[in-house]
Amino acid sequence: MTAVDSRPATGVAAADVGARARRGVRQTVGAYVALTKPRIIELLLVTTVPTMFLAEGGVPALGLVLATLVGGTLAAGSANTLNCYFDRDIDMVMHRTERRPLATGVVRPVEALLFGLVLGVLSVAWLTLTVNLLSAGLALAAILFYVCVYTMALKRRTPQNIVWGGAAGCMPVLIGWSAVTGSLSWAPAVLFAIIFFWTPPHYWPLSLRFKDDYAAAGVPMLPVVADVVVVARRIVAYSWVMVAVSLLLWPVAPTSASYPVAAVVLGAAFLVEAHRLLGRARVGDTVVALRPMRLFHWSISYLTLLFVAIALDPLLPF
Fold first, then answer.
1. Quick one: how far is CA 175 from the chain centroid?
2. Is 144 helix (H, G, I), strand (E, B) or coil?
3. Per-residue buried b or exposed e for 290-315, using 16+ beta carbons within 10 Å of the residue's own CB
4. Delimiting residues of CATH 1.20.120 domain(s) in the chain
5. In 10 A of CB 129, how many CB atoms?
6. Predicted structure pTM score
7. Which of 50, 140, 290, 301 minimizes the number of CB atoms within 10 Å of its CB?
8. Separation between Cα atoms, residue 294 and residue 132, nearest integer Å
9. pLDDT per residue over 13-23, tens digit each?
10. CA 36 – CA 48 distance, rounded (Å)
11. What CATH architecture applies to the domain 185-318?
12. Has domain 14-158 been given CATH number 1.10.357.140?
């Protein structure tokens, strides 16, 4: 026999409407969260906390760490949301980004714009009230630089876009250091430089993987306008500078002898992968032959492990 729903028809209809409403709320919340690009925020926070450990020379106050992370998350979410707003036409063309909320129409442009602006205001206000004015000012500078300089001025005009635009991603170390000390010094400047020189060899392999997407969208990423061997050589060059700069933290911070050991080992592994990419580029120029995502994924591991070493260094007894 066929089972019969004993609920009244109106009850069934009401339950269906409620279920659809709940799905709609989850979809909407998920879309707004997606605008903030949570995976990018995670990487930014990975550099913030170890910087605070180094600045403190030990374990910083938990309340200060949490307040800084909340403010940094709001600031990064603001910048990423506004980036999605201004790049919505590109996102609709590129396969990598065609499912973003503005590209699919789940969120309207005006809603994304307001959301991004509100997050920005909240981040600056929060950091001002709970951390300090310098950290708040640096967060505002990071938002403005990412949106106005990288997204609006550089991205569609020059293959150097990610080189100079990547400076926005370096700001969390300045924010984390200033949150603890209320000032800046050479140590956070070196940390800034590490991430600055890390960004091109991190992002150009991804650009190699999605070169056709960027070409279709008219974005002059370096792999779109240059031969793969040229791109690979620049990746190697920036990688060597990054490793050299990472060693400057030892005398500047100063750190114990364990940090330069970690920096050398991790840097050597990075350089091996960069040179392997160059070797593959000389043989073939297809994505399958290049395997650029190997270096892309390793670059994330490299930065994470390097900053873990930075966080642990003040805690070591030697």
1. 15
2. helix
3. bbbeebbebbeebbbbbbbbbbbbbe
4. 185-318
5. 12
6. 0.90
7. 301
8. 40
9. 555 555 445 55
10. 18
11. Up-down Bundle (1.20)
12. yes
